[in-house]
Amino acid sequence: MAHPLGTLCLIVNPHAGRGAVARNLPDLREALAGRGLDHKVVETRGPGEATTAAREALQGGCRYLVAVGGDGTVQEVVNGMFDGDEPIAPDAVLAVASSGSGCDFVRTFGLSRSPQVLARHFATDAVMPIDVGRATYHDAGGRPCERLFVNIAEVGYGAEAVKLAHRLPRWFGRSRYLFGAWGAIRRMTRPETTVTLGHTTQTRPLVNLVVANAQFFGGGMKVAPRALPDDGKFNVQLFFGQRSQVFLLTQKLYKGEHVPHPQISEYQSPIVQVDGPVALPVEADGEVLGNTPATFSLLQRALQLKI
């Protein structure tokens, strides 16, 4: 059967999940065909191509995009669906097929499923409007930049861990994030940092800042159990403890049991501003963006997510 939104455009990162996406793509296509869903495939070859593919698909009339890959692929596709703060096509729908890759964003919605189950979901017309995060930050040259994200952003320790992990070979798999985390603990200081929210300001030695639109990151850590991606607010967590405490919280993070904690201040806020005398690294959806000063705000219910 043809879907009411028309042909599905699968934007595929074949390298995601150390090649798992490419290996599982035939199963996904077979499952879609079994449901009678017309679809086409666009494979990306490098950074930024998923953004271009999404924009070109929408400009060509497609209204049903499927990001096939990990959180980085989802972020690129989302950025391709917007022109500044405005959606290119307000009626467009985004679906996500993690297809064996580590995609934490879909865990919040219970969408990390087999190709057969995903195809069944994709055949329905159920959608959910969700918020989209907007990060403004500075690049290495001090120039202001902007990036959209849908899952979780970090400032400080977490961003440094992602930066170090990206320097390691991909064949390390998830282990490279453990090495990155260890390296970040050794390198990060606790600079005095000012974090301004919608209703309060904190100036303290900061280890890590979490700005969460959804709930999971780091391969299944439930870092923000109280985050709701459609409530117009970020779940914000400021960790002011010692660097050595980070590893001690790891097991609790997987269960979402790290909060409440005496060294974690938790808030709900539609905006987060971060500044201080020391520039701190910024990441979003597992992609290194740049440095502080940075501001995080929300485009409320700006994206239609296929569920």
Topology, please?
Blueprint: E1 8-12, H1 20-34, E2 39-43, H2 49-59, E3 64-68, H3 71-80, E4 82-83, E5 86-87, E6 93-97, H4 115-122, E7 127-138, E8 144-149, E9 152-156, H5 157-166, H6 175-187, E10 192-197, E11 201-205, E12 208-212, E13 234-239, H7 245-248, H8 250-255, E14 264-269, E15 271-275, E16 281-284, E17 287-306
Parallel strand pairs: 1-2, 1-3, 3-6, 6-17
Antiparallel strand pairs: 4-5, 7-8, 7-17, 9-12, 9-16, 10-11, 10-15, 12-13, 13-14, 15-17, 16-17
Describe the structure.
α1 (20-34) links the parallel β1 (8-12) and β2. The protein is α+β, with helices and mostly antiparallel strands and 307 residues long. 25% of the residues lie in helices and 34% in strands. The strands form two sheets. It has a 15-stranded mixed sheet that branches. Strands 4-5 form a two-stranded antiparallel sheet. It contains eight helices and 17 strands. The model has no long low-confidence stretch (mean pLDDT 90). The protein has helices at residues 20-34, 49-59, 71-80, 115-122, 157-166, 175-187, 245-248, 250-255, and strands at 8-12, 39-43, 64-68, 82-83, 86-87, 93-97, 127-138, 144-149, 152-156, 192-197, 201-205, 208-212, 234-239, 264-269, 271-275, 281-284, 287-306.
Structure, briefly:
The chain is of the alpha+beta class and 307 residues long.
